[in-house]
Amino acid sequence: MNILGLIFTILLICACTFSLSLQKILLGKPVEISCQNHLKATRKILNSYESECYKSLRSKSKKKDSKPKEQNRSAAQTKKKENPLPLNGECSRLNLWPLILEGKNKHPFLYETAAQILRSLYQKPLFGIEGRLEYALLDAMLLACQCEENQNSPPALEKLLLKDKNVKRLYPLQTIYYRMLKGTKLKTGKGYPCLSDFISIERNPSPLCLKHASPAMLSALFNPKAGVLLYEELHKNKNPLSKERILEICSLSGLTSISDDFFELLDLKTARHSLSGKKILVGEEGDVRLRKQVFLPKT
């Protein structure tokens, strides 16, 4: 009986040890996969950076490209397949600096446009059924910016601490704001973009460039149908679109009433901007999505 008890005790110890080891392996597997995806996404960003540097250095040469047009078209088509959702241009972000300095009463259309962008991009995935949450978020963002000690320099969106007056809200404003800043993958059609791609705080305010706006930005400014039509029309013609042409496209998509004050927020004349050498690169692998701001060599 003593031998059987000893064997049973040894088997029980082995079973418990195996169970704990298996549990540790199962718990560590997601972490391992996440680390691997993080490393692969980082490598993609590094590869993209090297490619961008090569293109920047190559543009210095004035030699004409000897490749046939068909190869160029196929390369362009391949590039479009790799990047189906282009990022919004740096010149096409809505600048909130006037609202911080002078308030929403002096810039009502800028305030409403910012709220419209938040509502269009994040109402369905983040806001839920709570109404006018975009205004609460926008007011909290402006208040956080105004509470900064040095108002002469623009605060960073990533460092804002939002105060929430509604203590009964399921998710605090800071949690929702963090998710908006982080963003998700958009290939499945169920994600949402990063807020800093659409909103900026710059000391020198400039009109929003319509030429380099992404389809998501155009859809947020107008409506989804008008956004697609405007994006195609803007990239079909080299010259900027006139106000009359924009109103015509919007009327075809069911958007008939656009105020003249809204067009004052837009830059309809500039087709090219001087590149600052700053660019945002995105690397995606599995559930990991990394963003990194890099500086390219000056051409």
How does this structure look, described?
The protein is mainly alpha-helical and 299 residues long. 52% of the residues lie in helices and 8% in strands. The chain has helices at 2-58, 69-82, 97-102, 108-127, 133-146, 173-182, 215-221, 224-236, 243-252, 260-263; strands at 94-95, 199-200, 208-209, 266-267, 278-285, 288-295. Helix 4 crosses helix 7, helix 7 packs across helix 8 and helix 8 packs across helix 9 (243-252). 20% of the residues are buried.
Beta-strand percentage range = 5-15%
Assign a percent range to the helix content: 40-55%
**N- and C-termini, Cα separation:** 86 Å
**Number of DSSP helices?**
10
Oligomer: single chain
Query: Which residues form runs of ≥5 with pLDDT under 50?
Result: 69-82
Shape: globular
Helix and strand run: HHEHHHHEEHHHHEEE
Chart the SSEs and their pairings:
Layout: H1 2-58, H2 69-82, E1 94-95, H3 97-102, H4 108-127, H5 133-146, H6 173-182, E2 199-200, E3 208-209, H7 215-221, H8 224-236, H9 243-252, H10 260-263, E4 266-267, E5 278-285, E6 288-295
Name the features:
299 residues, mainly alpha, two-stranded parallel ribbon, two-stranded parallel sheet, 8% strand
What's this model, at a glance?
By secondary structure, the chain is mainly alpha-helical.
